[in-house]
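[READ THE FOLD]
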Amino acid sequence: MAAFFVRDRLAVGLLAPRRLVIMSTGLTMKKNTAAAVSHSVAAQAKATVAAAKTCKAALKASATDFATKYGKGSNAFGKCVAATASTK
């Protein structure tokens, strides 16, 4: 409804064209923000996968060292991934 109202006012000549540019810039900023967030989420997912691979290799190399550093519980692998992903 609001877009229709703006379009009508523009057609009549009551709304300056500069206002239209500001509105389109706002849309561009929203798209750029969405793209930046999407890129950030993808990078974080990639870092988590890389950290999981590193932890898997560490566990396979020496289970005792892994258990000493991260514990023996069911969340030891998660602790390793969280610690490794935050350092990368």
